[in-house]
Design goal:
Layout (H helix, E strand, L loop, with lengths): L7 H6 L3 H42 L5 H10 L6 H18 L5 H23 L3 H30 L7 H60 L8
């Protein structure tokens, strides 16, 4: 390669096939990472909006039975918190239909159903997070591998030269370093997104766990005050 032609495109085109393969892999990972970042960004925004809407309805004074009927009809478009609520109410009503009247059994059944639903919802919310973590931790090493291989390839080519100058060494080294740059290009956004999403998911989890405890307390009060199925809070 001409020592004066040091554009990124020329460096990539003149790199060895192993380095080019590493660059192609990192570019593909970077694109997939950005796609996962945008999907997760919109998904978390939707989860927060749906949870806020349901919580507003929940504390508006609407009866539990009406909320449950609405959640059952809107199951496909419901948010995580609404589905958690529906699972607790469903289990509570099933136990009622079996003529179980012990408050402890009813509360324990509803709480276990909500905890199981909570775990399922969090599995969905946390999807793609492990991929971003893997990209963040592995990409720099993949780029470093490409760089090391490129430098080895470059120095092998210099072995037959009687005189090696900076002008002859620089292009080969620059070709190799592009792989490290691509590795960092893939890793840095993934690290930032992973930390941001992990913090947001923790907040969603804490919010939903708090709701489970509050709803359990409401059921407990209703069971203590009314022998029938819960109707208000």
């Amino acid at each position: 390669m001409n020592s004066q032609d040091m554009s990124i495109v020329s460096l990539v085109l003149h790199a060895s096939w192993v380095v080019q393969l590493v660059m192609l892999l990192l570019l593909g990972v970077s694109i997939a990472s950005w796609a996962a970042i945008f999907r997760k960004l919109f998904a978390l925004k939707r989860v927060k909006a749906l949870n806020d809407d349901f919580e507003r309805d929940f504390w508006s004074g609407t009866s539990l039975n009406d909320l449950y009927a609405s959640a059952a009809q809107n199951a496909k478009n419901a948010g995580p918190m609404e589905r958690i609520f529906a699972s607790g109410m469903r289990e509570h009503q099933k136990l009622r239909e079996r003529r179980i009247t012990d408050p402890g059994t009813l509360l324990d059944g509803a709480r276990r159903a909500m905890r199981a639903s909570f775990q399922r919802e969090m599995d969905v919310v946390e999807s793609s997070l492990s991929f971003l973590g893997s990209v963040a931790s592995v990409s720099p090493y993949v780029g470093l591998f490409g760089t090391v291989w490129g430098i080895m390839h470059a120095f092998t080519g210099f072995a037959g030269m009687e005189q090696v100058t900076l002008a002859t060494v620089a292009p080969g080294i620059a070709e190799a370093l592009v792989a490290t740059a691509l590795g960092l290009f893939a890793a840095i956004p993934a690290v930032i997104a992973y930390n941001r999403f992990a913090r947001d998911i923790d907040r969603v989890a804490n919010h939903q766990e708090t709701f489970i405890e509050e709803f359990t307390n409401i059921l407990q009060r209703n069971l203590g005050a009314h022998p029938g199925s819960p109707s208000g809070h």
